[in-house]
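Form 7-S
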Amino acid sequence: MVPVSHCWTPSGDIYCGCEGGQLMRIDTETHGVKVLYSPPIPKQVFKSVSKELSSLEKEKTMSPVPDEDETEPSPSAKDQGNILKEGSINCLALHKHGLFAGGSDGYLRNLHVTKDVVQVADSWKSGSPISSLSWTTNFMRLAVGSTKGSMHMYDYSSPGVAELLSDTHFGNFVGIDFLAPGNQHCVSVRQDGKVQIWSLEEEKLVGSVYIGRPASCIAACPSSHCAAVGTLSGHVYMIDTTNMENPRIVHRLHIHQTPVLQMVYDTEGRFLITGSDDGNVFVADARPSAEFKVAAQTEVEGVVMGIATNTEQKHGPCKVIIIANNNNDVMSGANKCIQFDLPDDLIKALPSYLASKHCDLKDDVINKMSLNLSIPSYGVALKSDRVFYTMASDSKKLLQITLPEEPPKKANNKASYLQPDAEFPAHDLAGGTLTFSLHRQWLASAAPDGMLTLRELDDPEHPMNVPVHSCFMGGVFETRFSSDAQWMVTCGAGDGVIACYKWNFTSSGKNKATGAIEAARSNNAMLHGTRKSEDQILSGLPDWAEAASLPASRTVSKSFDGQQTALEKALEQDEIYMTPTPTLAGDPTWREVKEMEAVRAEDMEYSDVKKDLRNDIRELRRTIQNMMKNNETLPDIEKLGHDEFNLDSEEQQRLQLEGEQHVQQIREEMEMEDLAKMYLRELIKNECWDSMVVKGRSIKAFHNAVEVSNYPMRARSKEEQEELEFVTNVRQIEIAEMAARKEILDVQPKTNTKDKEKEKSGEGEGDDDESEEGDRQEQPATIGSLGAQYGGANPLFYSQFELHTRQQKRNQIVLLQDAIYRIKDTFNKAFDEVYKQREQEIARIGEKNQRITKILEDLMSTEGMWQPQMDSFEKPEKLLTVEEEEVTVDKFITEEQKAKIEEDAAKEAERKLKEKGDNARERALDMMMGGVLEIKKEDELKKDVPVPIFMSAKSQDEWTEDEKKVHAEYEKKCKELIEEREKYKKTLEAELKKIQTIIEDTTANFDDRLMNLFNKKIKTEMVVFQEELKILRLNHALLIDEELDAREEELNRQLNAKRALKHMCQQAVGQAKKMVDDYRDTYDIRVAEDKVMEKNFRKEFPDVNAAIVDQLARAYRRRPRGPRRPHVDTPIGGNNPFGERPLSARQPSNTAMLLKALEELDDVSHIPEGLIVDTSVWKRMCGVRREKVISEQEVKAQALTLADMNAFLQRRQMDDEQLKADMEDIMEELNQLRDTRLRFSCNLQVQFLLKQGQVEVDSGPFIPSYDDSILVHRSVVEDLNGTIRQLGEQKIAAMTESKDFRKGIHSLEWEHKKMVMQIEDLLNKAKNIQMLKVSRELQEFLHNEDHEGRRQQEIQILEQTLENQRGHHDKNIGERKKVLKKLRHTVRKKEKDNADLDNQLEEMNVCVAERKHINDVNAAMRNNTGAQKRMQDIVQRRKLVDLAKAQAQEVAVLRAEVERLRMRTFPALVQVER
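Output:
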């Protein structure tokens, strides 16, 4: 819920309305919020949600059922007023009889809130969103404001009825001007197109009309009651204001394609000049009799920013000056100035002034000059004598410039730039407008600073400034003089306000205003006749309508597709295609219409010529096409390019020139963009690089992903150094003061006899104290960080237990910041050492890589080489320079650069040519040593042994003995060369491996050192975070201290205010008591007097009989029956829910009614029957009764007054008691705050650095909480642990004693159980013995006493049996082994037989295969060959095979014998190849 409105209730609660239609009530005492009403969620929301959910379903078997709401009719206006929905409680106003709410739906609702139930009692529709509500003082009428600018007065006594107070249209003004005659009415236009006419004398809105389009400017015609309104669509609407109350639109012109920016009438109302950003300024006839026709145009470069006119002679030419901007930066101001003259007969002799059928004016005829402003400016005002004024955009000056008599010869030469003749102070903000009074002596300027500046041209140095609009709302948009210069009107840029000012002339001012008044009279007299006739014509013009403004002829007759079809057909048939004259569509501009008319006239005039030209072009096209076809058939060397068939060389040159200009423009834009980027780069570089004393960089490991960065550091500012120096001095003074104080306090009183000895021994004691103090230095655990171990030590640090005051905390923060700086600086020094080592390692690797490269070249190896480089993270300065290889595009080289490069290349070639001349040194080196000064071994090994000539010229059989010796020597040298190469190769490989091993070892050592630095960086980060945590805690403590101070100050202020109120209340109570006592005395006196009157009644009639007096007394006590007082709402707080209840003394008095009733009762006719009394006596009684009645009424009034005074006194006493209670509460809170401050200053938050075993707090799920923890010294814990250990040992000893005692008890119990069980066993044995049956064996055992001999005999028998069984077992094993041996022998025999059978089987398979093959080959010859012959062949083949096998065996035996004999003769050095 978003609150948007609220109102107070008499009980102190707040009703709050929300944006979503919710109504809440807020209890200001308990701060409770209760939602009284929340509008239900619209069913459309459920529909949209259901639709979204249903769209996610993939299967839909049934069509959706329509909702019930779709068939329900929409609620009526009355029902809508009774429904609270979103946006219906945007403003609230409380009444005694309900809560009134207004919202964006335009309904005013009366809400009754009863027991937290909200009901709409009544509603009224305003017709526009309600934005504000306000009651009158008597709460009878409610002012209702809307966002549309309307205001209604709602009468509570007549529900549903409201009176419209004003209906001012809402929106910012974009233009204002005075209507003719120029001093009675003004016309304005708003952004949305609302034109309004205002009366200056009556100060009210007279009439208005809506044009239906967003407006941009307005101008009023001096020669008629016509106003021209420019729009953002380029249209100009003509407004008839002859009937001020009902203005109307009579004509519309479409002049520009873009918004109309400037529009001005000349002083005589003949011409209307308009300007925009489309490059043209148009001149139209301003007279209604001429139907506002546009006459001509002239070209203006850029955006028109101001137009000014001046007519020096009566009905003479009109001088026009225009300022414009042509650099696409309108905010910088105008930089162009165009001046031309409009002749007085321009409309009558228009064709003679036109340069073409496009209706553009001839520059020489209108004396057009295009000039440049040396200073960009805003606004323009033209004076006579070629002088105009403008406001500089950057110097806050008003410039006076004189136009040249003749135009400059060149457009951009020095003469074309206008220089100011004089400068005067102007506005503080750039922008604004200028305007002259009619007599051209007063100049007014307005600007976004909200000031209206008026100056007299005779004294321009002393202007008069009037603040008219707020500069925060855009200041002044436009200002205008009335014709007699007695009035000034301005409109704001963003406040929607029109300000009207009238001169309050002094005696001298009236004389100066005479010229303006006379000029206005003369101008009105001159234009009176013209204005009258033109107004008649203007009032007779019909109302303009949108449909009537579009001619039917301006519609598209043919489609583009039809034109394309006709063109393609004509090209296919090689016919002449005539492009149809285009037609205008929609709402064309005047320029487009003129261009179309010129095209049509040109078509009509030159139709025959165009036809002949088309025929010639067709013939020429055919000729060129034939030439191009013939060109395709020619050889490539004779072919012409397609560009050589281009006959329009001028067009080609023009296109090339345009392309070059476009390229040049793009190049300039890129240069400016590059310049801006360079400027931004310099800013970033100065801020983030140059200002750094230590540049941020990192170091990367060679063989892993470890990366360590340093701390970028700026130089300390002068303020930081001064602050650090101040804190250091203060801290040193404090330490010295503490040492002196301690020394004074530690001095013990000494006797006078031993002063000298004690002085001598004092030095030693001082040394001991210093050593003890050194021993008592704080440890890192209590310091809270390890900064001292990483370069952050400082003896000036405060102890964490001494930071009580703010200054100490601030000083500690400064010292901690200095420690952080030094810690980072220490790490950076170590970082720099490692960084230098990396650079050195990379340099060494580079040197070694040179040797590796040489070795790899000698080895002719393609093995890669590792060369580490430093990237931009390690050398960030690389980012500031761009290398040639980083640029992916070709560099643009100008002609001058090309010439210089060619010149340098020629010089280099000439130098090399000179060096290649007759150089005696190089020539001698080549002749004597082959061009080298040192012969290297590797170069010699690369050379091959020269081959003797005879080896290539002769065959080996033709060689002589000498040549054979030379060949042998050649082979020996080749063999030696190969051996040397192998040795050198192994040497190079060993050297390569050694260098690579060295590189790997050194880089690994560096990585180890970098890892140490990385660990140090982590610890340094930890230390820095510890120090920063201290700083954060101290800053937090300072903030809390400041909050406590602020709260204490606020409580003291409240206490002083309450004391002042208490003093005033005490005085008021004392005065009230005094007044009540005095008035009580008066009341008592008045009551006593009234009683005396009652007692003295009989004394008033001493001359009357007592019986008659009694009857008169009864009549005296009779009172007339007072009439019932009608209930009327008192004006004091009648409907006001916040009004005070009327006092009793303020109730209407009944005295007058009683006296009136007494007059009737005093009549003689009311004398009681039977009472005979004189009339004079009756009248006397009536007079006494009247006095008594008046006295009674006075007593009643005084009694009521006394009751009110007592109630007032009681309220004052209650207020006094409440103030006293409030003071006590404030004092209690103040004391609590002081206690809190004391606890805060003493209960310091200290940071400790403890080991894991020293923290005995249970860790939570994330971070342990130390809120309920305490810090104790370790000695306390150790003592407690010792006590616990001692008590534990005592407990263990007691437990051991108890255990031993229990052990004895258990032992006795066990012995007892044991004996009981033994008894049971013995009893069981005795029983078993008694029940035992005696067998024969048992009898033998019992009769034989030699039990041992009998046992030995049994053992011998068993051993003999065992020996027999063992012998029998060995015999069986021997027999089994013999059988197994026979079986194995049989198996081997069978295996051998199987092997023989396998061999026979293989031979038989071979024989069978051969026989089968032979049988297959000789199958056809079986009948011719006999079996005998085949048998012989088989036998012969078998014999030959056996012979070959035998011979092969003999050869093998002989070869083995030969080898044996040879080995026995001499040793063999070379293995014989077989």
